[in-house]
Amino acid sequence: MASSPYSDLSGKIATHRAHAGVIGLGYVGLPLAITLARSGFAVTGFDIDPGKIISLDAGRSYIEAVTNEALTGEAKAGRFRSTSDFAELSNCDVIIICVPTPLTKHRDPDLSFVEATSRAIAATLRPGQLIVLESTTYPGTTNDVVKPILEETGLTSGSDFFLGFSPEREDPGNRDFETATIPKIVAGDGIEASKLMQAFYSAAVKTVVPVSSNATAEAVKLTENIFRSVNIALVNELKTLYAAMGIDIWEVIEAAKTKPFGYMPFYPGPGLGGHCIPIDPFYLTWKSREYELPTRFIELAGEINSAMPRYVVGSLAEALDMRSGKALSRSRVLIIGLAYKKNVPDIRESPSLRLIEIIEERGGRADYHDPFVAEIPPTREHMALKGRKSVELTEVVVKSFDAVLVSTDHDDVDYAALVRWAPLIIDTRNIFSKLGLTGEHIVKS
Fold this sequence. Notes:
CATH superfamily of the largest domain: NAD(P)-binding Rossmann-like Domain
Shape: elongated
Strand order of the largest sheet: 3-2-1-4-5-6-7-8
Structural class: alpha/beta
């Protein structure tokens, strides 16, 4: 009996002879590539950034979740290499897309990276390949956007090649989980694609959770992030209300979470950051217009969370006026933490960038200190801040500022010294209370 594209690929996956290609070697793609290599697959990583390829070839990882030792170990074993030559996709049996899915200025999905990558794959597409999208997007993208581009080749999904979706679930800085131990949602375009997805990811990930369709898998990822966005917006709104009442939201949350059922703690902050929570919910909002159905919770949560940087700067201006009689327009402010979350160098969508802009829009001057971010790199939305460098935390430096604003509570910061040196502290993370540090010049916001 003649073999089929499905049976050939199924056999390669079962015996770990399948060659995997991972497109996009960032926070999602590189850890995935190394996880697949560790499980025994030969992996080629693809990226359009030559700097990443140079770094990887030299054995230098730029992602905290991947150590230099892990990188060089898989490379020396012949299981991992990287390239910018997309013609090599023809050698890959499984191709995984891990490229960005940002929003436009009007909060519409920007699928340009997904579309361009799909066309690159189509250029060498052959029977017996499994194509997987991991980039977060709205339900229907895999089948309605990626599939037609691939089928322009004359090959058919489900018989010639196979198409699936598996949402990434990376959490930078979280040392309790890694790619191999985070349960993996998988789906495929048809029964055979679904079986291939389950077989492939089960070879590298401890727990695989199959769902009925690619659209369902896409919806799972959005639901996870919408849940977080809405609940963070709720506590941010409660923070502003309770502050007006003279009630400490952090004390309220600590007491509320002692209830052993029916409550899950979420925490306020200066705004949302990262690639997921500030962006992903609006993919569903955009898609909902097709069905003429409103997404009121999602949109309201976005409005509340987006307003938090201005709220924090308002608190800063009020504190400066009340405690030193100095206007924000004549003040210098030191932002602690540029990354969007603690103990990582990731500045994507970081509220700290917006805080700097708002302070300077109001005539003040803002600098930052971040032990993980030595210099602000180019960003799509904040190009004017490119090249600014982290300042040192010395007594002379801190005392030269009128206020210190803690935006990201990295562990590697001497908060006790800040209490001694800073004339005014605005704390958006409750870090000083957590550390038992007090002072009349510490203001929670």
